[in-house]
Design goal:
With 355 residues, the chain is α/β, with parallel strands linked by helices. The chain has two domains: 245 residues, TIM Barrel, CATH 3.20.20; 67 residues, no CATH class. It contains eleven helices and 15 strands. An eight-stranded parallel beta barrel has the order 1-2-3-4-5-6-7-14, surrounded by six helices. Helix 1 packs parallel to helix 2, helix 1 runs parallel beside helix 10 and helix 3 packs across helix 4. The radius of gyration is 23 Å and the shape is globular. The chain starts with 24 loop residues before the first strand and ends in a 9-residue tail after the last strand.
């Protein structure tokens, strides 16, 4: 008879350990070579930039990169273990798609780490011609559900999707649970109050679509005029706003203007001009599996880029080291408020009561 004590004992169940949260990449804007270097020096994991033409959605005079600058920027970033993403996020013209295809060919030759695309035809070209090139779906693609992202993934092999700034936090969480594609969200910067990639207001006023010409308010169409009532801001003759003496005046865009509607006067978009700031949501974003946090602002100065990158680098590192004790520092919030539109910030759609 075998002693009970000699029988093999069932192994105790292993203690359940939650999968450690992955550190999200900090993706920072670079509208110029000095801005790129500022972001890299302050700890960006990735920088994103565009060419000096309509292939990117920040086609302002004086911004962006020629070939010499982009080669220099890629070398500078890669030497410091920072990735470089090229934004080719406008839609090619039906009668002249050559600049967009040429830009893709150059991107592959230059050795960028990813291209950010919105147009399916350009994705098809990239997947066929440059299968080794990593593709990210731009916010201009306006994919707000997992079925849309699954389509881009199956058809073109996209590896990451940048979500529009119109989803609640719960919607972001549910989307991440349903897709193998990496998800990137905006963490700080100007809000686009339109359905991104579907803006028609600016093209109505100026005759140039921001989705093909790369600018929602072309500088050539902007006019400022001093009047007895204050400072008028116009876009191609359309009165966008009137600022009282000493009132801060923002760059005029139709979706952020103040208008008379009946007997009321005010902002009639989702909210008045203010900046998105999600520092308070950082632990939630990390725990739900957000793979990258994007800072808006390629049209901003190198000083802006340096300050925002510095704050977010410290915040992400602090959050990953002490998740359960994380709270935004007053110094971080003060620093970012100084850079926000109207020196105001919001959580945007992330904390809207509606879905």
């Amino acid at each position: 008879m075998i002693a009970t004590s000699s029988l093999p004992q069932a192994a105790a169940p292993a203690a359940a350990h939650p999968t450690p949260a992955l550190r999200p990449e900090l993706v920072c804007p670079a509208g110029s070579l000095p801005a790129l270097k500022a972001a890299v020096n302050e700890g960006a994991d990735c920088v994103y930039l565009g060419l000096r033409d309509a292939t990117n959605a920040r086609n302002f005079a004086g911004l962006n990169f020629d070939e010499a600058a982009i080669r220099s920027g890629i070398a500078y970033a890669h030497e410091r273990r920072c990735q470089v993403f090229l934004a080719l996020n406008t839609y090619p013209l039906a009668d002249d798609h050559a600049p967009w295809r040429s830009a893709l060919d150059h991107a592959a030759a230059w050795g960028v780490d990813a291209v950010i695309l919105a147009d399916p035809g350009l994705m098809r070209y990239a997947a066929a011609r440059h299968p080794e090139l990593r593709l990210h779906l731009s916010v201009q693609g306006s994919a707000t559900n997992h079925e849309a992202i699954a389509l881009y993934h199956a058809q073109f092999g996209i590896r990451r999707a940048v979500l529009p700034r119109v989803l609640s936090l719960e919607q972001v969480r549910q989307l991440i649970e349903r897709t193998p594609v990496e998800i990137e969200v905006f963490g700080f910067g100007s809000l686009c109050v339109m359905v991104e990639g579907r803006c028609a207001l600016s093209s109505y006023a100026t005759g140039e679509s921001p989705n093909t010409h790369g600018v929602c308010s072309p500088a050539k169409a902007v006019r400022w005029q001093e009047t007895p009532r204050g400072l008028d801001a116009r876009l191609n003759g359309v009165l966008i706003d009137c600022y009282a003496p000493l009132e801060n005046a923002g760059y005029p865009t139709l979706c952020k203007g103040r208008f008379d509607v009946g007997e009321e006067h005010g902002y009639y978009a989702l909210e008045e001009p203010t900046s998105l700031n999600t520092l308070a949501l950082l632990p939630q974003l990390v725990n739900m599996g957000v793979r990258a946090i994007k800072i808006e602002g390629r049209q901003r100065s190198p000083a802006y880029v340096a300050q925002v990158t510095r704050v977010w680098r410290e915040a992400i590192d602090h959050c990953m080291a002490q998740m359960h004790r994380y709270t935004p520092k007053t110094t971080w919030m003060t620093s970012l408020e100084q850079l926000a539109e109207g020196q105001q910030h919001t959580l945007g759609a992330y904390h809207r009561p509606w879905k």
